[in-house]
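Chapter review: from sequence to fold.
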Amino acid sequence: MTLIDHTQGGTGKGGGPEVLVPVRGPLPSPAADEVLIRTQAVGVNRPDVAQRTGSYPPPPGASPVIGLECAGEVVAVGAAVTRWKVGDKVCALANGGAYAEYCTAPEAQTLPWPAGYDALRAAALPETYFTVWANVFGHGRLAAGESILIHGGTSGIGVTAIQLAKAFGATVYATAGSAEKVAACLELGADAAIDYKAEDFQERIKALTGGKGVDVVLDMVGAPYFTKNLRCLKLDGRLVMIAFLNGHLAEQVDLRPIMVKRLTVTGSTMRPRSTAQKAEIAQALEAKVWPMLAEGKAGPRIFKTFPLIQAAEAHRLMESSAHIGKIMLTVP
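The C-alpha cell string follows.
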C-alpha cells in the first residue's frame, strides 16, 4: 500500500515538510479489537506536524506512520470486533497510521459517518471533536449559561469549540489573528471575537464581561498567555491547556489569582489516553453530538484538500496558519 514516510528512509529522524514522501509499505493487519479501514480521506492536525519534526513520538505499540484521523470503508475486522462489518462506512480516531491507503483503528474509537456526511467531512471530525469534548466539557466542565474564551478560534479545534460551546448554551468569545479570521469566528457563532494582534484580549474580555471574567479559557498558545488567561477567569474559573504552540515555560507568573479566585488549571493530550477512555468520549459524541451534526447545527469547515501524496504541501499550509478550519488529504 502507499503511505507517507516522515523518517528519511527509516532513519527515525524528522525534519521539515519535505521529509513527507510517498512510499510503498505492507498492508496493516487489525488486532483482535481493531478494524482495518480503506481510507478515503484523512485530517491534518498540529500533532502531525509535531510528530514530523520529532517532538511528538508515537506511544508504544502505535504505528510510526503519521496520522490520527481518517474516514473510509471497513475492509477487515479483528476477531473480537462485534459492531462493524466489512463494507461499513466509518470514521476513526486512530492511534497513528492514517497517512496511508489503509489504516487500523480500535473498534471503540470508530464511529459511523453522521447522516448526510461523505468521507471528507467525516474524516474531519474525530481529532477535534474528541479533543474538544474531553477538554471543554470534561476537564473544563463548561455548562449552559456559562462563558468561555477560545484561543485560536479559526483553527480546527477553535472552529469545533466555538460551535459546540454555543450549541450547548454557552456565551462564546474567541481570539484570532486577522479581521478575516475575526469575521469567521462571528460567522461560526461566537458572541464576540478579538483580533489579538490589534487589541489586548485581557482588556477586551474585561470589558465584554463587565469585569467579571469568563468561566473557562481554552488555550493552545501556552506560556505567553498564561498570566493573562488567569486574569480573564472569574471566581471558580477553569483554564484548560491543550497545546503550547508558543512555548511551555512560563516565567514571572503571578500565582495569586489561582488562590484568590479558586481557579483550576488543567489540560490534557488525547493520544496517550487508553482505548477505554477514548471509548467513553466516542460514546458521548455519538449520543450527544452526532445528532447535531446530522441536523447541521455544527460541523467541520474544510479549508483546503490535497491528495495524500502532497502531504508536504498540506503541512506547509498548516505551519503558515493561513487556514480557517480543517486541512484535509484525499486518498484515491
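Two observations follow directly from the output. The chain has a mean pLDDT of 96. The radius of gyration is 20 Å.
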